[in-house]
Every structure is written in structure tokens, then in C-alpha cells.
Amino acid sequence: MADTEPSTPLRRAAILLMSIGEDQAAEVLKHLGAKDVQRIGVAMSEISDVTREQAESVIDEFVEVMDERTSLGVANDEYVRKVLVGALGEAKAEALADRIFSGHNSKGLEALKWMETRAVVDLVRNEHPQIIAIVLSYLDADQAAEVLLMLPENIRSDCLLRIATLDGVQPQALQELDEIMERQTTGGGAVKASNMGGVKVAANIMNLLDSTEEGRLMGEIRANDDAIGGQIEDLMFVFDDLAELDDRSIQTLLRDVPTDKLTVALRGADPKVKDKITSNLSKRAAEMLQEDMEAKGPVKITDVDAAQKEILGIARRLSDKGEIVLSGKGSEQLV
User: Fold this and answer.
1) What is the CA radius of gyration of the chain?
2) N or C, where is the chain less crowded by C-beta within 10 Å?
3) Can you tell me the distance from the alpha carbon of 95 to that of 249, in angstroms, rounded to the nearest whole number?
4) Which residues contact 102 (CB under 8 A, 6 or more apart)?
């Protein structure tokens, strides 16, 4: 991918990781979310013919290392796989690597994961809500949430309710749906899973919606099926649930949360959450946080909600990696 223009941030990150060696690159990727790892992995696999000038503009402090290199485009696939294995372990790395290297050639449902949100919406918006529910179940939660918010408002809660009550999909039915999607996309590949849907999938999608839409949809779901609505709520992890985290988990979380996001997110938060967070900061850090909140002045509710959602995303990522234990509504009981 020859490129004489200034690099995009994603391409620059890929060049950096291709430059610092497999072990170091793996250490960096360990701190990223699955989506970011996927995007950077794709960018790394596409790099070729990087000029010295381009490389030096990305990492001036590694000029001496770059002098010893003649190309970053050698055996990219093997390099990316080794980096991913080091960061994620062999099982997860192989699955992600398969998506990275076959993504642009995927077909049907799998191809939807590589498409822009608007394009996915255009493909499914006129389908029956049950079909849309299956498609949303197949997507990653963050992408599904984006698609859901672009669908007509009057079908969103119906789709979520169908996701929550979806107990898998017969392989033949899934294959037929894949073929329908394939006629609108291109490439090769195959559907590999039929265990889709369920209350937890619906809860994961709801977790990623803004509070206003989340509340509206939950109200509609409760009105249609109060029991299912209750099950979804029980599996959701909300900002107030941070108060239930153990101190070690809170301290781990705070290391990954930008101070400016925390300052905004705590506006209007439950006092228990504020107390939990400040009690796990040094006295000086807690005082500075309070000073920053007072100095910032009024903040839009939408900004507060976005900051809280971002912190919850960090918490879920750390939980998936086993670094913290989420002990709120969305957690499993420990014995």
C-alpha cells in the first residue's frame, strides 16, 4: 500500500508496532480492546514499502533501529500472528488472525462485521425484525449497538426483545440467511456459529447505548415482557455498580481511566460511586479531582453519559482480560 501522503493515526500505529519487535508489540496490544487490536492488526497486515522518511516521522526516537531495517513488509502475516499470540494467547489470536486476513474476502454475515455501520443498516433495515435480531446477535456488541441506533425507532425494542428470547439458530436457517446476505456482499468464507442471541447478548448491546435510549427501550421491553426486561436489567452493568467493586479492581480501573473522563463522569454520579473512587485515590489526587470538577463548571448530561459509558467500556475490557472482577448487576455470583 504505497503512501506518499501523511500517515493516518492507525497506519502510524501499525508502523510503530511493526518496528519495535514482536514481544514489545505484543505488550502494547495487551492493553488494547479487541476492536482496536483488530483494526491495528488489519493495518499491520496491509503495510508494505514503508520509506525511511515515513518511518522516521512516526518514531524519531527509534532512528537507530530504523537504520538497520530495509523493509517492514516482509512476512507480514506471520509477524502479525506471532504478535497476536503473544498478546492474546493462541486460541483467541488464531480466531482474530483469521478475521484479519480473510476479512476483506468474507461473505454474508461475516462480511457485515467489516462493513461501515451505515452500510449494514441499509442492508437490513427493510428485513423482518426477527432477521434483524439474528444479524445483530451475530455482530459484536458495539457494532450491534451502533446499527440498532440507526434503525427506525419503532422497531428497536422489538429487535432487542427478539434477541433476548433467541435461543440459538438452526444451522440450516443460518446458512440460508448467510446466503441472502452473500447476494448483497462479495467474497468467500463461511458461517461458523449458530449459538446466537440470548438475554446476555441483549444486555451487552443495551450497555452500549446512551442512557436516554437505554431507558426508553427498557421501558418498551418491560411493557411487552416484564420478565425478560428484568432478566436483561439483571445482566447489565451500569455506572452505579462501580460502587460494588472491590478496592483492588477500582485501583486497576483508575489506572486506565483518563483523568478528564473521570472528572466529567462523576458529575451527578451516585455519592457511593464518588466515595468509592476517591477512597482509592491518594489524598492529594482526590483533592485535585474535586478541584478539577469544580473548575470545569456545568457539563452537558450527554457528555456525562458518554464519559460514563467510556469508563464502563474500560471496566468490561479489563474484566474480560481477568484483571478486575465486576460485582454489580452484570456479574456472576461468586462462592
Assistant:
1) 22
2) C
3) 29
4) 188, 189
CATH class of 239-320: mainly alpha
Residue 174 is which amino acid? L
Domain boundaries along the sequence of the chain: 9-103, 108-235, 239-320
Cα separation, 89 vs 82, whole angstroms: 10
Q: In angstroms, rounded to a whole number, what is the distance separating the alpha carbons of residues 295 and 288?
A: 10
- Residues across the chain: 335
196-224 burial, b at 16+ Cβ within 10 Å, e below that, comes to bbbbbbbbbbbbbbbbebbeebbebbbee
Confidence (pTM) = 0.51
Grid coordinates representing 45 are: 497486515
Name the amino acid, one letter, at 95. Answer: A
Where is mean pLDDT largest: 100-104, 166-170, 305-309? 305-309
**For position 330, what pLDDT does the model report?**
44
pLDDT at 92: 60
